[in-house]
Task: inverse folding
């Protein structure tokens, strides 16, 4: 089938699976207000479509998502709503990653039910390097990540590979060669599942993540807004856009 839609998110449906592709490679699929809104609309339509058994979330270019678009950042509440929408969608959402993911891009992956990446993928929580914190993306991530690994990678902003991402719980699987071959049995399994049973089973495995949203979303949204308005964030984002080190680098 021919992909549908124009703009930052395109759709393709085949064999019960709808693929939503982040398609703003010139901006490294950064989470702009426009991309967040477009993805929310596409997910809502998938959730209501009886022909959709599952959703695959993937990307064009060599970057899955670079995180928040510093030139057109989304409202923190809108990003929280998008992450919760993925977790709460009655259809399983599968992340297919063949490139780099940074900051908020890891939040998208963490919200998905199943996530696979190829050997070229890399990951980093880069928020601390621009003067903010991985606040709202913690809602889906911290219930799923190894606690020691989360502390290390949140605090240092280090880059890590797909094998490590799978070890610490960010990914379901790290494909050694072909991510599509690794995902083939997963998608076949989802196609063979009864839709109602699939939805109820997803509720079982996402219950604790949704409890975290209910308990902590308001506080983490406020924290994100406060940090992005801080003097450190202004310096960090300016340094990033000017391709220089921020003043605190030793």
Result:
């Amino acid at each position: 089938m021919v992909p549908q839609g124009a703009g930052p998110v395109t759709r393709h449906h085949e064999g019960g699976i709808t693929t939503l592709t982040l398609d703003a490679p010139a901006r490294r699929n950064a989470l702009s207000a426009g991309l967040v809104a477009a993805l929310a609309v596409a997910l809502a339509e998938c959730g209501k479509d009886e022909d959709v058994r599952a959703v695959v979330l993937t990307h064009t270019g060599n970057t899955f998502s670079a995180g928040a678009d510093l030139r057109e950042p989304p409202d923190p509440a809108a990003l929280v709503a998008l992450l919760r929408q993925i977790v709460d969608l009655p259809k399983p959402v599968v992340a297919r990653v063949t490139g780099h993911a940074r900051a908020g891009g890891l939040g998208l992956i963490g919200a998905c039910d199943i996530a696979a990446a190829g050997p070229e993928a890399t990951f980093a929580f880069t928020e601390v390097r621009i003067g903010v914190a991985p606040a709202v993306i913690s809602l889906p991530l911290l219930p799923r990540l190894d606690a020691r690994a989360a502390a290390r990678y949140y605090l240092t902003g280090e880059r890590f590979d797909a094998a490590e991402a799978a070890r610490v719980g960010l990914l379901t699987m790290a494909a050694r060669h072909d991510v599509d071959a690794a995902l083939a049995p997963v998608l076949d399994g989802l196609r063979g599942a009864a839709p109602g049973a699939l939805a109820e089973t997803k509720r079982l495995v996402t219950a604790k993540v949704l409890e975290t949203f209910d308990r902590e979303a308001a506080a983490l949204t406020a924290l994100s807004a406060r940090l992005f308005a801080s003097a450190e964030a202004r310096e960090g984002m300016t340094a990033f856009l000017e391709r220089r080190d921020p003043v605190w680098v030793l």
